[in-house]
Amino acid sequence: MLLTGEFVDAHRGLELGLFNRVAPADALASEACMLAQRFADGPATAMRLTKRAA
Fold it and tell me: Up-side HSE of residue 12: CA atoms within 13 Å toward CB?
């Protein structure tokens, strides 16, 4: 997809495993805030090491 420039819509991206969730536009800000809070409350060291490994 990166090399062909093929467009992937939200539902296809979900099927391919590119995304772990899809939210409607009117719920996007709320979903993003909930996910950000989960990151903020999570184990900092484990997250840092996971990001480094990625």
Answer: 5
